[in-house]
Amino acid sequence: MLLIYCPYCEEERSELEFRNGGDAHIARPTNMAEISDEEFEAYFFLRDNPKGVIFERWRHVHGCGRFFNAARDTISDRFLTTYKAGEPKPDLNEKPKTGAEVETYEALEGAAQ
Amino acid sequence: MADQAIATRNVPLAGRRGGSPAAILTPADPASRIALRAGAEAVSALSAALGVTLPVRPKTSASTGRRHALWLGPDEWLVIDEDNADLMAAAASSGVVHSAVDVSHRNTAVIVSGPGAEVAINSGCPQDLSLAIFPVGACSRTIFGKAEIVLFRTAEDTFRVECWRSFSPFVFGLLSEGAEDAAY
């Protein structure tokens, strides 16, 4: 089970409490009545579906109910970081602020023989 | 002339008993409740009007007597009064901008108590309920099996499980299964 850090609850919670909300940082055009059908299609329907890091909206629907943004690796399903809605994209090269380090078997016991 | 039909309100879970020696399940008495939404600038006035300090830290609650304010989200609280006081009138008397919805009859609650209460609830709830992580007074909206619940720890071995009344047979049933498992 995945644990996702909610930036509002300030705690890691089970994925069962969350819903995915699609791509993050999609800016709605301010001149909606003037844009062409192609431009509207690009804004409304077309997504990159990248293999690798994706910035997504998530909602803590069975918790605080808030939307927030997350950077997730679509290959490993690992959450790199989460941050509150409205905040700019974080620098993923910095150390993420998502809770304590995970205690892996390798870290505690050394590499498997 | 035909007799007038008189509607009586059924208490959900009325008469139900369940659980095990490790975790006793008791349907809670009817209480009044409001779902409260308000901005940060209204918190102090609402706290004064309700007579209970609205908590602003995640997963915390505040209680005055038998009235409890549970933090659900950054601007959202569940206020419960076990003496059925008129919380809507109390909130309205604050005079500040807020949204209050009376959910007294939407919600019902099950009291889970006993040394196996944590295990019984964890049978359907993914949260860490150990005392260090979920201390007395902690509260959280979370999920229990397929139903959304609000969990409130009132004592080291006692939880109040708030759920919607239409989900209450499911919640009570799953809690009963968990309570029986907790006895082994």
- Overall structural domain count of chain A: 1
Report the uncertain regions of chain A: none
Going across the biggest sheet of chain B, name each strand in turn.
1-2-8-11-10-9
Strand-residue proportion of chain B: 25-35%
Question: What average pLDDT do the residues of chain A reach?
Answer: 87
CATH architecture descriptor of chain B: 2-Layer Sandwich
Global geometry of chain A: elongated
Characterize the main sheet of chain A.
4 strands, antiparallel
**What is the H/E string of chain A?**
EEEHEEEH
**Oligomerization:** heterodimer
* Shape, principal axes of CA atoms of chain B: globular
Helix percent band of chain B: 10-25%
Number of strands of chain B: 11
- End-to-end C-alpha gap of chain A: 27 Å
CATH superfamily of chain B: Probable tRNA modification gtpase trme, domain 1
Structural class of chain A: mainly beta
At CATH level 2, the architecture of chain A is 2-Layer Sandwich
Organism (chain B): Sinorhizobium saheli
InterPro entries (chain B): SoxG (IPR007375), SoxG_het (IPR006280), TrmE/GcvT-like (IPR027266)
Protein name (chain B): Sarcosine oxidase subunit gamma
Pfam families (chain B): SoxG (PF04268)
